[in-house]
Write a structure and sequence with these properties.
- This protein is an all-alpha fold.
- The longest helix has 21 residues.
- It folds into two domains: 83 residues, RNA polymerase sigma factor, region 2, helix turn helix motif (Rna Polymerase Sigma Factor, Chain: A); 75 residues, Arc Repressor Mutant, subunit A (Orthogonal Bundle), CATH 1.10.10.
- It has nine helices and no strands.
- Helix 2 crosses helix 4 and helix 6 crosses helix 8.
């Protein structure tokens, strides 16, 4: 089932094939989660949004006219669900980006990595919301296709690469980050992805 096209999976799922449903979920869950996380929602809210998006697909599965455009539809739906949730909870603040503990070897290496990551995330939080969302979505593993990113963030597909480059350039120019990007530290230009 995993090698089936999206069109085949949608048709089989609409006919009640649970294996096709599982394959659709497996294929597109990382996309949904990356869009939901780009809104900096708590894990429980992100899980609710992802689940609601799958529910919307169940409700509208018979009406999917072009199954090949399903990734864009899913990305748009999860984005709308996130916006709905954020609007409902507008008075709440989701707080700063949480840091992840380092399980790496050596105390000094861990301290240096933590310092670098803290500086990077602090600078990342100072980027405008559009840059933050774009970079978070592009950091998904595996990276989503630009067409999917365009649909998820409502951007022209041709602007994604140049916008990403501008956002990373802004990030590199922030105080405390220039030494990370100038070769004094192994940094590949992506938040949280130092080597």
């Amino acid at each position: 089932m995993m090698s089936a096209t999206t069109r085949q999976l949608v048709a089989a799922a609409a006919a009640g094939d649970q294996e096709a449903w599982a394959a659709l979920i497996d294929r597109y869950s990382s996309l949904l989660w990356s869009v939901a996380r780009s809104f900096r929602l708590p894990d429980s809210d992100a899980a609710d949004v992802v689940q609601t998006t799958w529910l919307r697909l169940v409700e509208h599965l018979d009406g999917v006219d072009d199954p090949d455009r399903l990734p864009g539809w899913l990305a748009t739906t999860v984005r709308r669900e996130c916006l709905r949730l954020v609007r409902r909870a507008a008075h709440e603040s989701y707080g700063p980006i949480a840091e992840v503990a380092d399980d790496g070897p050596g105390l000094d290496a861990g301290v240096l990595k933590d310092e670098r990551d803290a500086a990077l995330w602090l600078a990342f939080a100072q980027l405008d919301e559009g840059c933050q969302q774009l970079l978070r979505v592009l950091m998904a593993d595996p990276p989503p296709a630009y067409a999917t990113v365009a649909a998820a963030l409502d951007l022209p597909i041709g602007s994604i690469g140049p916008t990403r480059a501008r956002c990373l350039s802004k990030l590199r120019q922030m105080p405390g980050i220039s030494q990370l990007a100038d070769g004094t530290s192994a940094w590949d230009g992506s938040p949280g992805r130092a080597t």
